[in-house]
Design goal:
Blueprint (H helix, E strand, L loop, with lengths): L7 E6 L2 E8 L5 E6 L8 H11 L3 E7 L17 H14 L5 E6 L1 H12 L4 E7 L5 H18 L3 H11 L5 H11 L8 H4 L14 H21 L17 E6 L7 H10 L3 E6 L6 H4 L1 H12 L1
Parallel strand pairs: 3-4, 3-5, 5-6, 6-7, 7-8
Antiparallel strand pairs: 1-2, 2-4
Helix pairs in contact: 1-11, 2-3, 4-5, 4-6
């Protein structure tokens, strides 16, 4: 089991202290993990993959500006999605890394695509784990799966509401916000929306309940500011044509976030793109099938 410190330290990047974890020696291939959420943090990925990957890569995981163990965003701080991208680029320079590979999970795939096409000379490879490139498409597909779960639980009205939303012409922002409001109605069944294989679990007791509550408060500020800005609702599908690096899309067969249209566009538009689908995973292959996930990542980077 990893120690509570997770090999983490605070590094001041562009005026904010960011929590950065580094595993593996400097002579190994640098791999930056970009978490999703928005505002999820890197705890879960490090817990399941740091020890597995560090023998072969130099894994770098960051809690984004204002998230979890990083310094919070104050009311008078300016903050936008572009700050997240600039933070990663400044961190690369601070660590003396010429080029690094990216591994973006979920909405971290969105950030990875944005970063790789903004700073293409800084990125050697890209791994997208169950990404969203188009938040509207991801929300619609997730609503369809939520509808099935509501139906299984006998909540016909909510099942129908989810389907109606998925088939509506509402904006990506409206869909995502309404999706967020409906999902708590699934109760414990809500875990099945994103997780298929429950064999592997995460020990969250390494931080106290008070600490997790503090993280949650900071994460909400981060999320609210991004929602207010609106940029996170824009489709990045057109930018897939700009990807020049070798790219791998790792998907779970039960993952509702990366719909077929997004996968087809990735394979059609990314010149050096390939995909691999894990057969016993939902949205979190890195912990649902951790050994297979690790092997796929390392094989691709070789």
């Amino acid at each position: 089991m990893l120690e509570k410190t997770f090999n983490g330290s605070l590094i001041n990047i562009r005026g904010k202290d960011l929590y950065v974890e580094i595993y593996g020696s400097e002579n190994k291939t640098p791999l930056l993990y970009i978490h999703g959420g928005p505002g999820q943090g890197g705890y879960d990925f490090s817990y399941h993959q740091a020890e597995r990957l560090q023998e072969n890569v130099r894994l770098i995981s960051v809690d984004q500006r204002g998230v979890s163990r990083s310094e919070g965003i104050k009311e008078d701080d300016s903050f936008s999605i572009h700050d997240i991208i600039l933070d990663y680029e400044e961190l690369r320079i601070e660590l003396g890394i010429e080029k690094w590979a990216l591994l973006g999970h979920s909405f971290g795939g969105y950030y990875s695509l944005l970063y790789a096409t903004t700073f293409p000379n800084s990125v050697s490879h890209i791994i997208f784990e169950c990404p969203t490139f188009d938040p509207g498409l991801s929300a619609r597909n997730s609503l369809i799966k939520a509808s099935k779960l509501f139906k299984e639980g006998g909540k016909e009205n909510l099942a129908e509401k989810c389907l109606d939303l998925a088939q509506s012409d509402k904006s990506a922002k409206s869909l995502m916000l309404e999706f967020t409001e409906i999902i708590p109605e699934l109760g414990e069944q809500g875990l099945k929306l994103h997780i298929h294989n429950f064999e592997h679990t995460t020990d969250y007791s390494l931080y106290t309940e008070d600490e997790w509550m503090q993280f949650s408060v900071k994460n909400k500020v981060h999320n609210d500011r991004l929602i207010e800005e609106n940029e996170i609702f824009r489709s990045l599908l057109p930018r897939l044509k700009e990807v020049t690096q070798p790219a791998l899309l790792i998907d779970g067969i039960y993952n509702p976030v990366t719909c077929d249209k997004q996968k087809r566009t990735f394979l059609n538009d990314v010149k050096y793109g390939e995909s691999f689908t894990l057969q016993d995973s939902g949205h979190f292959p890195h912990f649902e099938e951790p050994v297979k996930f690790k092997d796929i990542v390392l094989t691709f980077l070789k």
